[in-house]
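user: can you give me the structure for this one chain? tokens are fine.
assistant: on it. calling the predictor now.
[tool input]
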Amino acid sequence: MPSIPEGIFVFAGFYLLHLKENCNMENQKLINNEDAQRFELKSEGQTAFIEYQQTDATTIMLTHTKVPAELEGRGVGKKLVELTLHHLRDHNLKADPKCAFVSVYLKRHPEWESIVVQ
């Protein structure tokens, strides 16, 4: 049997690539691009983002999430939402989720309820 590189698994004679959830994002930081009004996460030369509008001094409306096709299904969107929510909490801001992706994430993670606008 030939040597199999790390991260590759064999199942029923097929080679499968094990995609790590962090997608090389361990050391990535969330960028608050205030000019474009979006939170950005760069990975593998691509930029995923959540567009936002600040509706008042303490509320950020999250309006749209975009993950490049090359990064879909690899945990990038999840990581982007998590980092965005940490940023909002750390800056004493509330999230007003209007984006379906963020809303679904929040329904699955009730631990963020305290920073969501009711």
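assistant: here you go. DSSP finds two helices and seven strands in the chain. The chain has one domain: 20-115.
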